[in-house]
Amino acid sequence: MSSKQQGRDFLASVGHYFDKAAALTQHPEGLLNQIKMCNSVYTFKFPIRKGDGYQTITAWRAQHSHHKLPVKGGIRFSDDANEDEVVALASLMTYKCAIVDVPFGGAKGAVKINPKEFSKTELEQVTRRYTAELIKKNFIGPALDVPAPDYGTGAREMAWIADTYLAFHPEQIDALGCVTGKTVSQGGIRGRNEATGLGVFYGLREVCDHAEDMKTLGLERGIEGKRVVVQGLGNVGYHAAKFCSEGGAILVGIAEYEGAIYDPKGIDLESLMRHRKETGSILNFGTAKNLDRREDALELDCDILIPAALENQITAENAPRIKAKIIGEAANGPVTADAEDILQAKGVLVIPDIYINAGGVTVSYFEWLKNLSRVRFGRIEKRFEQGAFDRILQLIEKESGRTLSDEERRTIARGADEVDLVYSGLEETMIGSYHQIREIWKQKETVETLRTAAFVGAINKIAISYAELGVFP
């Protein structure tokens, strides 16, 4: 299937989910159409010098919803990128931000290149020229549109974007807020790198904490002991696997582009990463079995399957063979609409992407706030908190007659660092958002899936925003 057809199918799938949820609300048709439709798409081409000649690059930036500003969404570098895919991803960003109560509209960007075929200098040319084109059309800015990393991009590209924006707008005191996902030295925030994967863990842990739902699936309460398979060892997949393992889950399967492995006794993630660094592959690792095809990992016997690669990975073709009891969509759109119908009939609990992978945009929101305030989280209050805790401990020691060791005192009296506050804020967001979704799911008999409940919740919140603006009564 061509990438263009995949993009069309992806957009149609998002539209299908929206329509299914919208039918369960009481909002007028005009308002629902306003929420569903993409507000604007900027398609453009630009030349860059490559080798001894020039290459024309195609790029996009889609702003799906302006019910809140700025809009927010990543930029991906991929030779499979297309306009329908960008619009679909921007749509998901709108609903995702609404679900986790982050005050952004949804957006997404893409540059149609394979970054592996470009040198660092050429990638910098592409990134800076892409940013300049967005600046010309007012498609970027801390109050307008705030990009972030996505597939094929990272902190390096975000630093180039910020530097280019600053060159055009040196007078803006909050200019660093034009993009998130930067390194800490460039105005980024501690905890952003692992945020999406950590959010996946917090979400899965909260889902597994409901004994009633786990009983329906034939599982025990809690994430401890759950057998997990992860597809994709990029930033999101690696950190999801890492935090799930640290939380007591057993990593039994891993899939990457070079292949897939399985070990029912468990895979040590850090040992696997060292093996991959040494050999260039996850294959032939310890006692793990190499699978014939990397796609076979999706069909392994497990409790939790985490597809953390690209969209359209679980389809109507392979859904009947899925053995997982829970699927956490760490990637955007890994389960197609047809596949979800099959999985629902099998009793599989699909935790939708618009909730479970919202950790990235949540911490990006924290970074944006940091850039606007121009102060590191914890800088003002950390020492005050530490002093207050220390005085409490002194009083306890005096009344109890026991003297704490230096290590005990440091552990108990420590004030919160920036990363502590980020983790705490992310954890609160993922727990609170899941409770909202689950309440809709359990209270309404017509809401069959968590995805539909999430979309209903997002639509209701966006509708309230429009009503408060006076756009729709």
Describe this structure in words.
With 473 residues, the protein is α/β, with parallel strands linked by helices. Among the domains are: 160 residues, 3-Layer(aba) Sandwich (Rossmann fold); 162 residues, NAD(P)-binding Rossmann-like Domain (Rossmann fold). The protein has 16 helices and twelve strands. A seven-stranded mixed β-sheet has the order 9-8-7-6-10-11-12, with helices on both faces. Helix 1 runs parallel beside helix 3 and helix 15 packs across helix 16. The longest helix is centred in the last third of the chain and has 26 residues. The mean pLDDT is 92.
Short key terms for the protein model shown above:
single chain, 5-stranded mixed beta sheet, 16 helices, globular, alpha/beta, Rossmann fold
What is the CATH class of the domain at 195-356?
Alpha Beta
Biggest sheet overview? 7 strands, mixed
Fraction of residues in helix? 40-55%
Radius of gyration: 23 Å
CATH architecture of the domain at 195-356: 3-Layer(aba) Sandwich
What's the CATH H-level superfamily name of the domain at 195-356? Answer: NAD(P)-binding Rossmann-like Domain
Task: Please outline what is shown here.
By secondary structure, the chain is α/β, with parallel strands linked by helices. The protein has 16 helices and twelve strands.
